Amino acid sequence: MSIETVRGTSQKPVSSDALVEIVSKQSAWSGHLFVGYPIFGTSEGLQMIDALLVSADMGVVVFDLIEGHETGDYEARQDDSANKLEARLKTHQELMRRRDLMVPLHTISFAPALSNPDSNRSESYPLANTSSLIQELNRFTWSCPHGRDMCAKVLSAIEHISSMRKRGFSRRVAEEDTRGAKLLKLEKSIATLDNMQNRAVIETVEGVQRIRGLAGSGKTIILALKAAYLHADHPDWRIAVTFNSRSLKDHFRRLINNFFLEQTGEEPDWNKLRIVNAWGAWHGKDRGGVYAEYCRLHGMAFFDFGKARARFGPGREFEGACEYALSYTSNLVPVYDAMLVDEAQDLPPRFLRLCYTLLKPPQRLVYAYDELQSLRGSSLPSPEEIFGNSADGSPKVRFDETSQLTPQRDIMLSKCYRNSKPVLATAFALGFGIYRKPSHESGTGLVQMFDRAHLWEEIGYSVLDGALRDGSDVTLDRTEDASPRFLEDHTDIDDLIRFISFRNHDEQADWLAEAIAENLLKDELRHDDIMVINPNPRTTRESIEPIRSRLKGLGIRAHLAGVDTNPNTFFRPGKASVTLTGIHRAKGNEAGMVYIINAQDCHAAVRNLASVRNCLFTAITRSKAWVRILGYGQSMTMLKSEYEKLKARRFELRFTYPTSAQRERLRLIHRDMTTADSKRLRNRDRHLDDLLHELESGEVQIEDLDEETIARFRKVLAK
Questions:
Q1: Can you spell out the DSSP letters for 500-555?
Q2: What is the model's pLDDT at position 677?
Q3: Fewer CB within 10 Å, N side or C side of the chain?
Q4: Has this prediction a pTM greater than 0.70?
Q5: The dihedral of CA 307, 313, 319, 323: what is its sign?
Q6: What is the DSSP letter of 241?
Q7: Could you give the C-alpha distances from 300 to 293, 325, 326, 332, 628, in angstroms and in order?
Q8: Dmax of the chain from CA atoms?
Q9: Residue 674: which pLDDT band, with cuts at 50, 70 and 90?
Q10: Residue 591 pLDDT more than 80?
């Protein structure tokens, strides 16, 4: 048992520190202590509660913190805070019995500098100093057999996570065991933030803060909540929220608006709190971006995608543009008080440095990313490397070890609230090629692997057998804490994940249209519960069109995200339309039922296999519940075979950890290539194929070739 402490900003640092130090030492209690949270909207403006304790041992305790010796009218402050919190809690029916709250609500004023609080205290208004605080808190006893459940409901009411997730339609279900009913239960189960998520939202550091976590760990919601919290606490600050995928813009705006409105009763000031793309455009309404703003501020050339490709080469467009901007800027113009960056793994490190230069001291930058770094085997560079050194040679940013009682600079979210263990294990097994048939080139089926072996444990896996070290056999499994059971218990495994093979593309489209119709008519799913993903970004339009045509024939509306909608919109809130999408726009979004079409394209590739497999990993992890992986041909059969091996091993990952040399070999074989690189290699392959054919047919004799060339070929092939 212990008290989990989360520290927000506070105008009362001495009393806050004293409160945290005393309460955190009480091992006999359990609960959550918040400092500087929540914030209410009042007729006099926004008001913050100094501190709040939610505990199954006491109920809810509201703290009025006092700096110095002057207590003022602390009785009135206790009444005011209690009335406002009670009014909020009473809007939640699950906390009420008739007209009364089922959880006791207490107030206490804490003045650590007072030498004799008894001389000032009123009988009905507790007042304590450091020596009497525990004695006073022990008076707040509460005996309830369902105390923990009630406290969880209190936390949900305060955090407003359930209402924040709502998207357009309310969910109505008629049957108890339909997919729609199961989704409703899942959404209610994820009604509160865990302690690490709360810390990521509320704790603000003076400088850079990093939030890492898998898909589904809540990074996007955390950044939205954090932006709203900072805006409420510091309405005068200029804050920017930015990201790589344009389809996240409307999503972020809705999340932030919902939370801010629930907390304060007001809408955000969108002139102060800006949601902008990372790159942006030079012209066009609502197409602003951080990089574009940087260029305007510093009066320098702006590179759009085409110009950047011509100047810096394919694959280095944004990286080159940011590098150029930073290199040719002398007088930096800081304009933001805080910046929050989502999807940092898809942005060049130079962009993070560019954001850093746009910030006023103490340069509050929060960046969140998926620790897998697009499954390329390495993560973002260290903060020392990203942000560089000061004039004296010391790193500008460094994540030193901090106390559990101080705001955390580096937060790791290991728990996954979107994907069940079987779904997440499937994504890992296919993404890494854990059970892929070994290739003759590398001697292993693995496509990629982490350089830091113990990263597996950091993201929520435990070692069942073997060891996480180079050359060792190892068996890994998700811990129950990292993958809650309720995410999978609602459905039989054979319905949770299904691989379905077809004879051709038309048969796939026919089956998919009928399946979606059944989801809507029988399963009680909404249109925005369904997402259809084509993992190959180059073929999305042509692959999606036959499916949309068949859905239209069944009277089902569907849209291609970013094509039939503006680039900032993914789902269509308030409209009954199924989302069809390519893999890039799918990133950052989620749905209850995910259909992945043309999965056979992800089984093998002559070039870029790591990226190709990553597309499948990303697509699978969009699902909150069910996944349907569709495809046709021999490649689909082989992909399904990999899944069957995983399932037979109870979704455990068993493999031999590759050595450093083997990992380098995997990167070489499956590395990303530009279009020009691939074309050049295809031409070479064709020339070699022509030469082999001529040798085999006798058109060219081996003696016709230069002896030195033959010797060099033999030497290379022998390796």
A1: EEESSHHHHHHHHHHHHHHHHHTS---GGGEEEEES-TTSHHHHHHHHHHHHHHTT
A2: 47
A3: C
A4: yes
A5: negative
A6: E
A7: 10, 8, 10, 12, 48
A8: 110
A9: very low
A10: yes
* Dihedral-angle region of residue 346 (phi above 0 means left; psi in -120 to 50 means alpha; beta otherwise): alpha
d(CA 349, CA 44): 43
Rounded Cα distance, 282 and 292, in Å: 6
| Contact by Cβ (8 Å): 435, 645 | yes
pLDDT tens per residue, range 460-519? 899 999 999 999 999 999 988 888 888 898 999 999 999 999 999 999 999 999 999 999
CB 51 within 8 A of CB 65: yes
How long, in residues, is the chain? Answer: 719
Q: Look at the block and give the residue holding tokens 């909608």.
A: 565
The CATH architecture to which 193-413 belongs is 3-Layer(aba) Sandwich (3.40)
The closest of 437, 423, 348 to 386, measured between CA atoms, is 348
Q: At what angle do helices 305-312 and 317-327 cross, to 10 degrees?
A: 80
What are the angstrom distances between the C-alpha of 111 and each of 68, 69, 322, 339?
Answer: 7, 7, 51, 35
d(CA 223, CA 209): 12
The secondary structure element, H or E, covering residue 454 is: none
How far apart CA 499 and CA 644 sit, in angstroms, is 9
Task: Round to whole Å and give the CA distance between 33 and 4.
Answer: 6
Residue whose entry in the numeric block shows the structure tokens 């304009």: 335
| Residue 47, number of CB atoms within 10 A of its CB | 16
> What count of other Cβ atoms lies within 10 Å of the Cβ of residue 449?
23
Preceding peptide of 537 cis, ω within 30°: no
Domain 421-666 has CATH 3.90.79.10: no
Q: Check the CA dihedral 112-118-120-126 and report its sign.
A: positive
Of 119-128, 531-540, 583-592, 627-636, the one with minimum mean pLDDT is: 119-128
Q: Phi first, then psi: what are they for 228, rounded to 5°?
A: -65, -40
SS3 266: coil
438 contacts 446 by C-beta, under 8 angstroms: no
Report the C-alpha gap between 632 and 628 in whole angstroms.
13
- How far is it, in rounded angstroms, from Cα 491 to Cα 182? 9
DSSP, res 473? E
Distance from the Cα of residue 428 to its chain's centroid: 16
Listed residue (459, 380, 454) closest to 657, CA to CA: 454
Q: In angstroms, how far is the first alpha carbon of the chain from the final one?
A: 60
Which CATH architecture fits 3-156?
Answer: 3-Layer(aba) Sandwich (3.40)
Render 645-706 in DSSP notation, one character per residue. HHHHTTT-EEEEPPPHHHHHHHHHHT----HHHHHHHHHHHHHHHHHHHHHHHTSS-GGGS-
C-alpha to C-alpha distance for 176 and 181, rounded to whole angstroms: 6
User: Of 351, 343, 413, nearest to 373 (Cα)?
Assistant: 343
Q: Tell me whether domains 3-156 and 421-666 share a fold.
A: no
Residue-range domain boundaries for the chain = 3-156, 193-413, 421-666, 677-718
Rounded Cα distance, 379 and 375, in Å: 9
**Helix intervals (H) in 63-146:** 74-89, 133-137
Judge residue 319's burial from the number of C-beta atoms within 10 Å of its C-beta, 0-12 exposed, 13-18 middle, 19 or more buried.
Answer: middle
C-alpha–C-alpha distance, residues 628 and 623, integer Å: 10
